[in-house]
Amino acid sequence: MKRVMGLDVGSKTIGVAVSDLMGWTAQGVETVYWTEPDFDEAVRLLRPIIEQYDVKEVVVGLPKNMNGTIGPRGEASEAFAAALTEATGLPTVLVDERLTTMQAERMLISADVSRKKRKAVIDKMAAVMILQNYLDRAGK
């Protein structure tokens, strides 16, 4: 089997999740801080994680507008995915991430996580949800 990495790419942070070796479950790894649009910096920060987990494929959340169109954030994610593939040679898959950050926020609120702590883990949680959605669909 192969490990898959899930990324929730924002303008300042990248939430990172990886799958188990069987490709069944997603676990949050960390939140990486970067300066958009410095793709070289992002790759430099992600490469050690890619190597540590022997990642073979990357799933990048694609934030679409609610009507399904792709706006500036979506275009930024597409550019990020292309730059990551070019730099690492890894295939990247873009998946619709509408509402994942809101789902992650609701989950953390219902778990009674403080606002300060939520801010620290929200991107990582969103990455877990993006990757888990992808793994669930790929397994069917």
TrEMBL record:
Localization (cell): Cytoplasm
Keywords attached to this Swiss-Prot or TrEMBL record, sorted alphabetically, are: Cytoplasm, Hydrolase, Nuclease, Ribosome biogenesis
Pfam families found in the cross-reference section: RuvX (PF03652)
Chief location of this protein within or outside the cell: cytoplasm
Under Enzyme Commission nomenclature, its number is: 3.1.-.-
Alphabetical list of SUPFAM superfamilies matching this protein: Ribonuclease H-like (SSF53098)
Domain of life according to the entry: Bacteria
**YqgF/RNase H-like domain spans which residues?**
2-104
Under CDD domains, the record lists: YqgF
For this chain, the family text in UniProt reads: Belongs to the YqgF HJR family.
Role summary? Could be a nuclease involved in processing of the 5'-end of pre-16S rRNA.
Stated name of the protein: Putative pre-16S rRNA nuclease
What is the organism lineage in this UniProt record? Bacteria, Bacillati, Bacillota, Bacilli, Bacillales
